[in-house]
Write a structure and sequence with these properties.
573 residues; alpha+beta; Jelly Rolls; 8-stranded antiparallel β-sheet; 6-stranded mixed β-sheet; globular
Length: 573
């Protein structure tokens, strides 16, 4: 995929500057299919909440349809205006297909009254907005919700409120518990980057160009956030990131897993009883795992959800057209009662490497496990292999992880461009990264589903991280990441073995990929991917409050008694 910022700049340079040009540029990149209806827009409606707060919204009406189903979009990123045009663009596009659309600023954002506290008010405000919609003459009582990321989370919040008007959901690159306790590493990059993006939107001193540059360039964000990423204690990094204290960040970064706010904003419990949902995500989206959990919950409850996963990360535009087109079919079936194709399967995923889409009856699809065992060769890193047989007698690998020089994250799932697929060879040259490679494959191997890494490990500290990353090495020698995951070893986690080693299982997310003949499968093992998972400082307990650094000596075992292995779900045929 071409870089979002590069294409946006080129399209804007080719057209007059200003909001109209921005709308044109976005429309050219996303290419949403237009319907046959003209659209009439009513700007600045006031929607009342139960506590008297008024939220601002715009109504997009298809000319000639006095009453019909409604698509509701609720956004914290601005429903209209320069640099805030995505929600407006989608609202208009849905209306051209005959849907009435309400596009609303959430509480405390832009033209809406009240105070914005992320996640907290979305259930009540979603319920009250749906109740208000039911009273409008242009709403026939059937409402669907659409949106990506936070705009997807608010759908689950509204569904959790039990509002009867809600008939269908279309959550994109999101899940029902975005704000969750992360037991395998504090998501420092995600939280600081998101706060920086919100602060950028709210800064009146910035020009439209500068706002676009800061919002869409991961390199620019990295420049502004570099000091915050390395700051200790992590709890006070908010001041370096956004120039002020963020009370919610301070409270939740210091909170343990029993804090009541975790439960208040976690809507997993409502997924199985919510209206049927269309799930759209990408293999490199940072919320993929939670979205797949939500999909499985609805499927198990008999809701007949639909799942579409492509080769995208969170900040790409490639998913936008597909998500919109899929939503048109989904809303057609669930809001208008239109027939669904008899041969349509509920799961459609993109097979990377094969560069094609496949459909399945369920997720994960039926597969056979392929175990690739880790071998070592002492200090000669080039001798490490993945093979189909466990080694009989093999010395372990040992390395030092130093939190003062943390192993960095390259690509993968994160909230910026520069995410997704990257060449991992710079990472592989580090002394704190172990590299295990297969020989070139004699035949293609295609796998789809969750990937797991089983390791036998030991650390000289009570807490240590073990990070695994699956890569494919192409014929040019590039080592391209497919999926990964992190495990924070602490007392009580992992299975202690009689010899004192610990067996851990690293959930490396899910993927769908074909490794072609002549290519190699590669596994990286490290003890960090900072700042995506905040560096392990070496002290047990809540590390967001700590300021001391303790290097760790890490040992990875791979022999007959310690059969460390990568597990791949291989498809038949």
């Amino acid at each position: 995929m071409a870089n979002f910022m590069t294409r946006l700049e080129r399209l804007l340079l080719e057209n007059p500057l200003g909001e109209t040009a921005l709308q044109f540029a976005l429309a050219q990149m996303v290419r949403l299919p237009a319907g046959r209806f003209k659209v009439q827009t009513t700007v600045g409606l006031r929607t009342p909440m139960r506590d008297g707060v008024m939220l601002a919204a715009d109504h997009y009406a298809p000319v000639g349809i006095d009453s019909g189903p409604v698509v509701l979009i609720r956004t914290p990123y601005g429903r209209r205006g320069p640099g805030r045009s995505l929600a407006e663009m989608y609202a208009y596009a849905f209306a051209t297909h005959g849907y009435h659309v309400l596009n609303q600023d959430v509480r405390g954002r832009f033209d809406s009254e009240g105070e914005f506290v992320a996640f907290i008010h979305e259930a009540d405000d979603g319920h009250d907005t749906l109740a208000w919609l039911a009273q409008q003459p242009w709403c026939n009582g059937a409402v669907g919700m659409w949106g990506a990321s936070y705009l997807g989370y608010v759908q689950w919040a509204a569904a959790a409120s039990g509002a009867p008007q809600l008939k269908a959901l279309a959550p994109v690159i999101t899940h029902s518990h975005l704000m969750e306790y992360h037991e395998h590493g504090f998501p420092l990059d995600l939280l600081l980057r998101w706060m920086f993006q919100i602060a950028t939107m709210d800064d009146p001193a910035l020009s439209m160009w500068e706002r676009i540059r800061r919002l869409n360039s991961g390199a620019v964000q990295d420049h502004f956030l570099a000091a915050a990423f390395m700051h200790l204690p992590m709890q006070t990094a908010d001041v370096l990131a956004i120039g002020k204290v963020d009370p919610l960040y301070r409270e939740m970064s210091a909170a343990g897993p029993d804090h009541p706010l975790w439960r208040q904003v976690d809507h997993q419990g409502a997924v199985a009883t919510a209206p049927p949902a269309l799930f759209v995500s990408g293999w490199y989206d940072l919320f993929l795992d939670g979205l797949l959990e939500d999909y499985r919950a609805q499927a198990a409850a008999g809701k007949a959800p639909r799942l579409v996963v492509g080769p995208w990360h969170h900040m790409e535009y490639g998913y936008m057209n597909i998500a919109f087109t899929e939503a048109l079919h989904w809303f057609g079936a669930h809001l208008r009662g239109e027939p669904v194709a008899a041969d349509a399967k509920p799961v459609r995923v993109f097979i990377m490497g094969a560069n094609r889409w496949r459909e399945f009856d369920r997720w994960p699809p039926a597969s056979q496990p392929l175990r690739l065992y880790l071998h070592g060769n002492g200090a000669a890193k080039t001798g490490r292999l993945l093979t189909a047989r466990a080694p009989a007698d093999n010395p372990p690998d040992t390395y030092i992880y130093d939190p003062a020089d943390p192993t960095p994250n390259l690509g993968g799932p994160k909230l910026a461009d520069g995410a997704g697929i990257v060449d991992n060879r710079p990472l592989e040259r580090r002394r704190d990264v172990l590299v295990f490679s297969s020989i070139p494959l004699r035949a293609d191997v295609e796998f789809a589903g969750p990937v797991q890494l089983e390791l036998y490990v030991k650390s000289n500290l009570a807490t240590a991280d073990f990070f695994g990353r699956l890569c494919v090495v192409d014929r040019a020698g590039r080592s391209l990441n497919i999926c990964d995951g992190n495990f924070r070893l602490e007392p009580g986690r992992g299975a202690i073995q009689p010899d004192g080693t610990v067996r851990i299982t690293i959930a490396m997310s899910a993927t769908a990929c074909r490794v072609k003949a002549g290519q190699r499968i590669r596994l990286l093992v490290a003890s960090g991917a900072h700042p995506r998972f905040a560096r392990n400082l070496g002290a047990p307990g809540n590390q967001t409050l700590a300021i001391t650094l303790q290097p760790a000596q890490q040992t990875v075992y791979h022999d007959a008694a310690h059969p460390s292995a990568l597990n791949l779900p291989v498809l038949a045929g």
